[in-house]
Amino acid sequence: MELKCSSLLIITLFATLVISNAQGVVRSDHKGHCAPRLCPPDRIFVPATQQCHDPQDTSVCPDSRELFLTAYGTAICDCPVGTVESSNGLNVVVCEPILSKGHFCKEGQVIWFKDFNSPAQCLPDPCHGKNLQRLPGSLPFVPSQNNGECHQLGQTSGVCLPGLIYALHLPTLSGVCETLENLGYEQFNQTDLAFLNRRYGKTVVKNNALVDNFGQMQLFGTWSMGY
């Protein structure tokens, strides 16, 4: 049976993490349980600091890495979603955006994948140069699963039906129209929002760049060079 928690709880696997429940009983049965959130939904708890951090907090992760929460409830630093690890030739690993030329691809090539199970490499732009001409920081173009036409990720009007958004389907590396819920976004009703505000304080307003990055978290997949 699939384990589902309310929006005010989080699924935690206890294989490496031991947490006390409300009655003070320690569980260590190596199974998933619903446990109270330690942080607001947009923050990650870091045991080393005993604090809730913004995933893009530069005081926690080095080299442009960001905080991620594993299935075991532990925080790790990794390349931002939508990027892959790559060596710059000087024994320094950098995070390169996918579907960009990066630092090492030849003219006309972008960092992409032959298929879902292959590592990232320099390949011809699947959208015939559109990704090489887009503005820095903008979302990339991917071919549609339906007809092969290229559209920019995050598009709604003119590409998808109302209520849907254009996103990357990982197994086929093609674009599809999906709901925000199916893309993994948490949606809270007014009761849950009021509770979260009382428990953690009012929601932090993010600047546009950060909002864009959080949008990319669900429009992209998570890959590493040579994964």
Automatic annotation (TrEMBL):
Q: Which InterPro entries match?
A: DUF4789
Presence of keyword Signal = yes
DUF4789 domain boundaries: 61-160
Q: Which UniProt keywords apply?
A: Signal
Q: Which residues form the signal peptide?
A: 1-22
- Asked if Cell cycle is a keyword of the record, the answer is no
What is this protein's name? DUF4789 domain-containing protein
High-level lineage:
Eukaryota, Metazoa, Spiralia, Gnathifera, Rotifera
